[in-house]
Each structure stands twice: as structure tokens, then as C-alpha cells.
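Class I SAM-dependent methyltransferase, pasting as requested.
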Amino acid sequence: MDRLTRQRIANFYDGHFQRGYVRGKLASDPAYAATADAMTGSALPLLDIGCGIGLLGMYLHAKGALRGYVGMDHDERKIGAGRTAAIRAGLSELLDLRIGDAGTLPDLRGHVALIDVAHYLGRDDQQALLSAAATRVAPGGSLIIRTVLREDNWRFQVTCAEEWWLRASGLIRGGVKHYPDHAELCGPLRALGLQVNTQPMYGATPFNSYLIVAKRPG
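C-alpha cells follow.
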């Protein structure tokens, strides 16, 4: 995404800090382009669980990759910011941003995104969410997950330190509850009939992030 488009999207949000955050995420976070790639070739809508301020929806619309969008997040502040930005962008009808959590998911069939969500849930809640998300993946659709995996390496230690700072600073609520390992995430998805591909998604960061794309055969 070019600089002018990033700035245009950022201008829909409030405040110097939030606009800087938006510009930085759009410029450096590889999860957005990876989600667009996973959705290529279909006209399915996207359910974005843990959508925050709705930035993934904004990105996909700017890329011409969005065919419908429902974003869910339990943080009322973030949903409010996302709704305001969507109104300013003239996208309030396309970007449906709702306050809710894993227990209030809509009965939507399409693609599903879980970007930086899983490790903020306990082990049992992670498994319940994976099951609920997988049932909402339509034939030909994908469940796109970006998460931290528990591994014995320096990247994982740096990630733990960064997550501690995010919680201490108040930028996130609740904090990490359980870092899953590869088998905890991918095994249940395969058992639910999805074809799973995993690859590192470090980008330009030191964090132990992975992209997991679980596709339901069409």
C-alpha cells in the first residue's frame, strides 16, 4: 500500500497517536497483505474476530478485496473509534463493527480472521473459539490466524516482554493468558476438516509470530 493511501486511511481516525499507529501498522504489518492473499479468488465476506479499530477492513477495502465485513471486539473504545472512522470514510454500511466476544459471534459463513487474538484467551477458551471460527468458514473460505506460538527461542522471550509492556501501559486489557504451541492450534483445525498451512510471520519485528491459514475445500 502506497504512502498516500496509508495517510488517507489514517486521516479517518482521531488524534495524533491513533493516526500514527494506523500509518505504522499499514506500512509494516504483513498480516494485512497475507489476509488479502488468503481471500483472493472468492467473493466471500470476512468475519474479523478481535477487529480492534477495524483497520483490517479499511485495508481490504482500499485493496479492492472486501466483499462484506463484520468486525467483532469486546473493547468498546476501539469499536467506537472504528465506527467513527468508517462513517468518515463513507463505509459505515460496508464495515459492520460490533461490540462482542467469542460467545456472541454472528451466524456468518465466509472467511474468518483471528489476528493477534488467540494468546489473550485461556487454553479452553482458545479451543472453543477455534471450533466456533472453523464452523463459520464456508467452502472455499479460509480461517486466517496470526498468533504467537510457544517456542524455546529468543523471539518468544522478546514477545513475552513486549506483551507485559502492553498490559502495563494500558494499551490492551487483560493481557496474555496462554501461548499455544503449534499442535494445540493446528491439530484441532485439521480434525475439523480444514487444510492447514503454517509459516513464520516475523516481518521486520523480533516477535515470534506465525501465520496459520486453514482452508475449507470448496
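Note for the archive: The chain has a mean pLDDT of 94.
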